[in-house]
Amino acid sequence: MNLAVFASALAVAGSDPVQTPPAAPPPAPPASPAPAKPAASPPSIDSMLQAPPAPPAPPTPARPPASSTSIDSILQNLSGPDQTTDSEEEAGANVAPGPTPYDKLDVKTYDRAVRETAAAARARSGRMDGGWTLAGADGRALYRFQFVDRGGETDGAWRDLNGGRGLEGSGVIAQIDYDGAKLMLRFYEAGPEDPVVVSVAAGAAGAWAGNLSRKGATTSVQLKRE
């Protein structure tokens, strides 16, 4: 074969190459089987111990015994022993004891308590507190006064010892002026037109001396504590 023939043969081969079929795709990998679920394991001893116990079954109530309905049993229940409950006994034990009856008091102890109470009341009261009697120069009692002296504020009532019955001869003192050394009282017997004025001053031995003005007349008087 000459060179020209060989060249032409190569040219023909380069212009129409041989068609090579495409390669086949690789096969798909086989599907993996699904994992099997593990079998349930039996409960452990610890889990059984930690679980709360089942509630006990309620007890079956017992039937009450048949009560006797005889007359004797009814009377025995009505007149039986003391039915006081524990709560009532405890409540009674907590009650403060009442005052001691007079018939069980010691006489000396009672008298001392009365004197101490009266002394304490006088200590809290003013000088004029208590009962007083107004008498004339001849010593005859004319009026009785009862004062409530709170140590600066004094109230009082009067009573005529020689006239009037019940409320007719008594009343409230309308005006009291007291400065520790002098005392003036004004009250009305029959009405506003019938004033009575007592003016006294402190004297020796606790007596107060002065004048009484009543119905236009003035008399000497003394005021003494009862």
Sum up the structure in keywords.
Lipocalin; 5 helices; elongated; 226 residues; single chain; alpha+beta; 24% helix; nine-stranded antiparallel β-sheet
In short:
With 226 residues, this protein is of the alpha+beta class. It has helices at residues 3-15, 45-50, 71-78, 86-94, 107-124, and strands at 130-136, 141-149, 154-160, 170-172, 175-178, 182-188, 195-202, 208-214, 217-225. Strand 8 (208-214) and strand 9 (217-225) form a beta hairpin.
What is the residue-mean pLDDT, rounded to a whole number? 73
N-to-C series of helices and strands = HHHHHEEEEEEEEE
CATH level 3 topology of the domain at 124-225: Lipocalin
Q: Biggest sheet: strands side by side, in what order?
A: 4-3-2-1-9-8-7-6-5
Helix percent reads: 10-25%
**Alpha carbon gyration radius:** 62 Å
Q: Given this structure, which CATH class of the domain at 124-225 is correct?
A: Mainly Beta
Question: How does the overall form come out from the CA principal axes?
Answer: elongated
In quaternary terms, these chains amount to single chain
Q: Low-confidence runs (pLDDT<50, min 5 residues)?
A: 12-18
Number of strands: 9
- The first-to-last residue Cα distance is 184 Å
Share in β-strands: 25-35%
CATH architecture of the domain at 124-225: Beta Barrel
Helix count from the secondary structure assignment: 5
- From the helix content, strand content and strand pairing, which structural class follows? alpha+beta
Largest sheet composition: 9 strands, antiparallel
